[in-house]
Amino acid sequence: RKEVEQDPGPFNVPEGATVAFNCTYSNSASQSFFWYRQDCRKEPKLLMSVYSSGNEDGRFTAQLNRASQYISLLIRDSKLSDSATYLCVVNRGSTLGRLYFGRGTQLTVWP
Amino acid sequence: DTAVSQTPKYLVTQMGNDKSIKCEQNLGHDTMYWYKQDSKKFLKIMFSYNNKELIINETVPNRFSPKSPDKAHLNLHINSLELGDSAVYFCASSQQLFSSYEQYFGPGTRLTVT
């Protein structure tokens, strides 16, 4: 079983739509959770960390459910510039610095 | 003002050759990493160094040898290149070793082995 599983999509949504991505992780000892964004043929960049109580950054909301080992990302009022691949990233609690990346969910926002 | 830079950006070479990829970060970070992103887009860690010391050495063929001359540089040398080595290689850095810190990625080196 992979460390991090994501639905690869693609998700194709109109501007202004709300879209949600989900991710599950296999290691219950994981301590740190992130969403990274990767534009086509570019490097991944941190979008936001995910905290236990859930957190919001503008139009983006991240949730963590430790019991179900499940992470989500909600994007409200989608913009064309949100088109990218969204990577769910989890550490393995016992291994310093080692992050596990999901294969990403591809989002295309159309006008 | 590039934070993490890699050279070259593109590398096309034949099977059996030896090649190197260089990485530099000007963020003052202690930890640097090499990742491989294959054609299925999975990003997998290969190595990490903390203050020039090897910390993570994932199950990678020993044809791959990282070298960190100082904490701002982490190079990757690949011997006897194979077709399966074709991928995008990303260098990254983080302030410290702990995985709660954001990792900053370089622009990637697209390696094609023919």
Number of strands of chain B: 11
Distance from N terminus to C terminus of chain A (CA atoms, Å) equals: 38 Å
Which residue ranges of chain A are poorly predicted, with pLDDT under 50 across at least 5 consecutive positions? none
**Overall form of chain B:** globular
What is the tally of helical segments of chain A? 0
Low-confidence region ranges of chain B: none
Specify the overall morphology of chain A. globular
The residue-averaged pLDDT of chain A reads: 92
- Taking the alpha carbons of the first and last residues of chain B, their distance comes to 34 Å
Mean of the pLDDT scores of chain B?
93
The ordered string of helix (H) and strand (E) elements of chain B is EEEEEEEEEEE
Number of helices of chain B: 0
Helix and strand run of chain A: EEEEEEEEEEE
Count of extended strands of chain A: 11
The gyration radius over C-alpha positions of chain B equals 13 Å
Briefly note the structural class of the backbone of chain B.
mainly beta
Query: How big is the Rg of chain A?
Result: 13 Å
- Biggest sheet character of chain A: 6 strands, mixed
Which structural category do the helix and sheet elements of chain A fall into?
mainly beta
β-strand percent of chain A reads: over 45%
What does this structure look like?
The complex is a heterodimer of chains A (111) and B (114). With 111 residues, chain A is mainly β. Helices cover 0% and strands 52% of the residues of chain A. In chain A, strands 2, 4, 5, 9, 10 and 11 form a six-stranded mixed sheet that branches. Chain B is mainly β and 114 residues long. Chain B contains no helices and eleven strands. In chain B, strands 2, 4, 5, 6, 9, 10 and 11 form a seven-stranded mixed sheet that branches. A four-stranded antiparallel sheet of chain B has the order 1-3-8-7, with no helix packed on it. In chain B, strand 4 and strand 5 form a beta hairpin. At the A-B interface, strand 5 and strand 9 of A face strand 5 of B.
